[in-house]
Amino acid sequence: MRLENMMITAQMEIAPKIFQVTLRGALAQTLETPGQFIHVQIEKSIDPMLRRPLSICDVDMDKQELTLIYRVEGKGTKRLSEKKLGEEVNVLGPLGEGFPIEEVKENDTCLLVGGGVGIPPLYYLAKQLVKKGANVITILGFRSEGDIFLESEFEQLGKVIITTEDGSKGTLGFVTDAIHDLTEEYSVYYTCGPKGMLRAVENSIVSPGYISLEERMGCGVGACLACVCDLAEANVETGKVYAKICSDGPVFKAGEVII
Amino acid sequence: MNRLEVNLPGLVMKNPVMPASGCFGFGQEYAKFYDLNRLGAICVKAVTVERRSGNPTPRVAETPGGMLNAIGLQNPGLEHVLQHELPWLEKYESPIIVNVAGNLPEDYMEVAREISKVKNVNAIELNISCPNVKEGGIAFGTNAQTAADLTEKVKSVSKVPVYVKLSPNVTDIVEIAKAVESAGADGLSMINTLLGMRIDLNTGKPILANRTGGLSGAGIKPVAIRMIYEVSQKVQIPIIGMGGIFEVDDILEFMMAGASAVAVGTANFIDPFACPNLIDGLEERLDELGFDSLTSIVGRSSALCNLNHVR
Ligand SMILES: Cc1cc2nc3c(=O)[nH]c(=O)nc-3n(C[C@H](O)[C@H](O)[C@H](O)COP(=O)(O)OP(=O)(O)OC[C@H]3O[C@@H](n4cnc5c(N)ncnc54)[C@H](O)[C@@H]3O)c2cc1C
Ligand SMILES: Cc1cc2nc3c(=O)[nH]c(=O)nc-3n(C[C@H](O)[C@H](O)[C@H](O)COP(=O)(O)O)c2cc1C
Ligand code: FES
Which reactions are catalysed by this chain (chain B) (predicted)? Predict the structure, then answer.
């Protein structure tokens, strides 16, 4: 975990309101697991004031670069999208516990399920899984054909199934429809996206899996208790009944927390 | 002699800066960034008798110049804090202040009695100002008599000095400050957060699950300054000032208004090094302004104004 100014070396709009930005700095080399995030101070200002949590989508250790993909939602992400090359943002990270991949073995098949801006952290995960010799099947859910991003990037890593809510491309409906249609067997799944989607995915799959959660944050480091969620069962070691998404998560074992 | 040193009841501080309660957990997270011995004191999260799981999320909402929070006094409970959090802090020599909360006076008394026996606890901060719980908290801090009664009860069981943390959500804060002073408070902490609300335009509903929350951050600083300025002229006990401290000059402003030490809350979230950076900047700024020591500026503002009145 470090605090450093990182320089914007690339930024472009890859779908309506969806931006891809690349940040350069030594912090990039300290990423531990896919699924970790950074807490970005977009400007030293009083509005926006708080840092914004954004997932790490890709890392280039040699070039010391991190790539993020974000949707313009409000003030903070809007300002970020207006930043020019060469400008700096202050970054705290990498934060949190990401997707565990130690147990995945060569030739295992892993299912990745992402919805909207929950997709980015799955990309570096997919790369790491492929590096271990695993097979990756990715289901990506979007609203409509025009919203699609990262499709060709994921295609280079394995089979990709697109779902759109309006049926303009791929399977009509939600990611869970594609999960039901799936004929392949898989040993583990990983998912990130809106809460409703996570709930539905968790309910439709029996294999073990990992889910990545979002919550509004203050500190990002576990000190303020803004970002908690309830544990399904109290932790046997600590007796705790909650988990902090910023430091115990954002990734949890499916069933471990109540979503 | 260390120019930044401040001595308050129970607290020998090498500098006037401490993290504010609830913004620093029990120290463990920020200890990953710097040595906590750099801090003038360490003020930890509110402790209640029983373990509390707090309010539903979302618990924070940003506002221009600040944020609303409705954590709801989530904490692991007295027993756990005695067994784990306080022993972990033993390796640090900075004085420790424990924020104490509860539903009933008996709850406050039990926490104060047990916590004040712990050898590394130097003072208690009596939280009669949390706006985010239905019982206790602010309910004790908006009426002078109730606040005084609770202070007296807690004083009767505490083995360490008691600082009463005041709420700004009152019409006459001076009245409450005087009442708790008469009841035996050793010091005051002020201010806690201001009650506020934000509405999500997409849903038409409040952003916070608790609907309302406490406003902290730069936006509340003038309110804190005004209250400290007024209260410090009417009480003899020292004040720990807080509310929107982000810069070195904010600390000096609080001290000139009448605070003897300061606490930094929200700023930690934006910069995890906020406290040590402020401490580093303080000495330099004293030189620039030509002040020999920090204590010499405490209450300077009211002293100067009163002088002008005499003329
Ligand atoms: C661990 C984590 C990883 C994330 N990764 C990504 C990502 O890779 N790409 C992406 O597009 N988005 C991601 N998000 C969501 C992103 O943080 C929010 O969209 C962003 O903070 C909105 O800021 P804003 O200023 O544009 O919106 P505003 O609505 O103006 O923000 C106001 C406040 O609410 C907070 N907030 C609003 N929406 C969210 C949200 N969904 N989650 C958390 N805080 C929120 C903001 O941080 C800010 O404090 C992630 C969230 C978390 C918790
Ligand atoms: C997330 C958060 C949690 C807080 N929790 C507590 C608490 O447990 N007890 C307490 O007395 N004050 C609590 N406070 C209030 C702060 O200690 C402080 O009085 C207030 O935030 C003003 O200072 P600031 O503007 O520097 O943040 C909390 C504030 C925040 C932002
Ligand atoms: S954001 Fe502060 S504890 Fe998670």
Answer: (S)-dihydroorotate + A = orotate + AH2; (S)-dihydroorotate + NAD(+) = orotate + NADH + H(+)
Model ipTM value:
0.94
CATH code of the domain in which A49 resides: 2.40.30.10
Residues of chain B with pLDDT under 70: 1, 307-311
Statement to judge: residues A231 and A209 lie in one domain = no
Task: Check if B78 contacts A (Cβ < 8 Å).
Answer: no
Mean pLDDT of A182-205: 95
Pocket probe for ligand 2: among B165, B169, B188, B192, the residue whose CB has the most ligand atoms within 8 Å is B192
8 A C-beta contact, residue B95 and residue B261: no
Active site (annotated) includes residue B43: no
> Residue B64 and residue A218: Cβ atoms within 8 Å?
no
Q: Give the active site residue among B23, B130, B275, B305.
A: B130
Contact between B124 and B100 under an 8 Å Cβ cutoff? The reply is: yes
CA distances from A119 to A77, A115, A175, A191 (A): 17, 6, 12, 8
Q: What is the DSSP string of B14-28?
A: SSSEEEPTTSSTTST
Residues A47, A17, single domain; the answer is yes
pLDDT of residue B1: 59
This prediction has a pTM of: 0.96
How many structural domains is chain A composed of?
3
Do A6 and A90 lie in one domain? The reply is yes
Residue ranges making up the domain that contains A62? 2-95
Query: Which one of A64, A95, A126 terminates a domain?
Result: A95
Compute the average pLDDT of residues A72-99.
97
- Give the model's pLDDT for residue B308: 61
